Amino acid sequence: MDATTTRIKSLDVMRGAVMVLMAIDHVRVYSGLPAGGPTPGIFFTRWITHFVAPAFCFLAGTGAFLHGRKLGDKGALARYLATRGLVLVLLELTVIREAWTFNFDYAHYILAGVIWMLGWCMILLSLLVRWRTKAIAAFGMVVIAAQNLIGVVGSKMPESAGWIFQFLYFGGPVQLGQNGPTIGVLYSIVPWIGVMAVGYAFGEIMIRESAERRRLCLRIGLSATALFLVIGGIIVLMHPPRPNAPPALFRLLGQQKYPASQLFLLMTLGPVIALLPLAERARGWLGEMLATFGRVPFFYYLLHIPTIHVAAIIVSLLREGSVNPWLFGNHPWSPPPLPEGYRWGLPLLYLVFVIVIAVLYVPCRWFARVKARGGPGWLRYI
User: Which residue, 104, 23, 26, 46, is CA-closest to 329?
Assistant: First the structure.
């Protein structure tokens, strides 16, 4: 196996791994279990999925770099990124929103989730790809490191301009006009455009000789993880816990995700990068399954939410004898109050998760083979 094949498979395996983890959290949404607590089992069920968005965004940047090398034309890459970004934004506001809710309550609820964020970041990255790779890396690092300045500036802006900074950094509900629909901004643009830009520059490492690539991945990943542990540990020790505060480990791992703090990104991206050399060695049925999901990540994403939603409806029908109307609320941003007695236990959550992954493997394997054979140009955007 040559280095190029290995490199692509390692990225596919890692993408596939985080896609599988993502399904855990999205099953949790329909289980009614809260995000992050109160028990250790629920905390770590949520925490393990924190790796998904950073890895997805970072590796999307790396994939853009490798696609640009294949195209051999920065202009063509810019056009591809801009077009695909617009497609992602459109699908987030329509198909994906419907998959989450199974309702048409657009007057009160529109979701700007992770796919929205990835789409806008691709559009912005299309403006950067003509720069030198080192300049793109520097841009990304500055955005990540200095993201709090956006918050400082935004807090001093007139109220009429506040919605701009909600999309850019703060997130939260944004009402369009006096009587217009509300957009729930779950993922803002900053710092994620920085993550994608750094991921793009990381592509320079992924094209190096195998031994050097592995060495650099370990050095970068372990250094980022160590930096998180040192800085995060100092912060936890310097701030005595409040009454009824969670244990020190939970406070260390419970970093801010919305918007993603510097420590959150160190905590998640460090291990992802460090594990890439291990992904190169993935073999057997597990490695093949993860690689299959990783070859068609957006196709997987489009399928997994309605599949999980339908699974939750089946569970409700089996447990309650009818479909609970709660399942047609505005998930995942602002669902109605949880009905009494609805909440699942963790064993049921993980059972549904395993079944969903098994079901998704069949169409993803088919679509991966279709893409491998070539076909219409629109397949590149899915």
Answer: 104
